[in-house]
Amino acid sequence: MTITPRDIDIFILTYNRCKFLKESVQSVLNQSVKDISITIIDNASTDETESYVKSLVKNHPNIKYIRNKENKGSEYSYNVAKELADKTLMMCFHDDDILHPKYIEIALKYFNKYPSLNILSTDCHTPETMSNGNWEDVSDKAVYCSDYVELASLMFYEGTFAYPAVIYRTSNVKETKFSKKKFGKIDDKPRCVEICKGGSALVLMDKHFLRYRIHEGQDSLTSSTGPFYNEIINFNIYFKDILCTKKFSYNRLYFILRNIEYLIYCYNMGKDESLSFKDFVYKAYKEGGACYFSKLLFNKYLKYLCRKLHHRLRRKIKPKRKIVCLSENN
Questions:
Q1: Which residues contact 297 (CB under 8 A, 6 or more apart)?
Q2: Is residue 69 classed as helix, strand or coil in its secondary structure?
Q3: Which pTM was predicted?
């Protein structure tokens, strides 16, 4: 059965970001394919969001508005979307980002080309000026991951996977049991890997499919919400358990080389000053969230050599991924 624009539910989760929401909604309305079902789930905004969306609904019969009685957090709104979704595909778009006009069109073509596809996303970029205009021409080249292990490898080593643009096969979302509690606000990658299980994944390589906004008040820039120590450890253990099943493998090497970078990134995001970063890494190693090589990067005698080796390997090692495009016959 051919998947059409009528077979995708797009949910936009929002809270007090009306000035950004207007551009996000418009980018969905501007898609090259029409008849897309859009549902805006408002987490009890106190700004002009409600009046703006109600005016939209009057002029766009394909837009629905759901307003939560109180702010119960983004995970609550995600679960509302999960329950409401009744089409073949679903997407939970963010209220502060902007989609390229051809994104849904190309995504649907890939879902039709690969019946096993459970999840699709893209790379992204942050332009100096966020707008719905002056769109770049885009390439439909993509990295094809035949299973969740390949997706985990791509996510962990290259990191090119934009959560706001993820399109899921709805049945997999509904069947996947996932707890955000273990990972806090860095749950996006583990969640997507879990949803991928039993099928394949695809990540568009062109960063111009998604304009990702950086702004004050963004959750990823707020240290008060983590990630906390146990969440960082759980995140790294999760990927370690997937990528390090074999004693000698490329995936194990990818984990070793990227492990310290994720520890640094998450540590700085959470700004936990109760431990120095060195002590943080040593503690993480004891609890299984850091590899031995990450520990050696702080060794009194070997750190200089190990850091040079790490830098060189990270520069040199480029995994061979399967690259596909829509014009190919696979």
A1: 260, 281, 303, 306, 307, 310
A2: coil
A3: 0.94
Report the pLDDT value the prediction gives residue 329, as an integer from 0 to 100.
60
Give how far Cα 272 sits from Cα of 191, 217, 287, Å. 24, 19, 17
DSSP codes joined into one string, 105-143: HHHHHHHHH-TTEEEEEE--B--SS--S-SPPP----EE
Task: Give the C-alpha separation, 20 to 156, whole Å.
Answer: 30
117-122 and 63-67 as β-strands: parallel, antiparallel, unpaired?
unpaired
- pLDDT tens track for 182-235: 999 999 999 999 999 999 999 999 999 999 999 887 777 778 888 999 999 999
Strand duo 117-122 + 210-211: pairing: unpaired
Average pLDDT over residues 169-188: 95
Polymer length in residues for the chain: 330
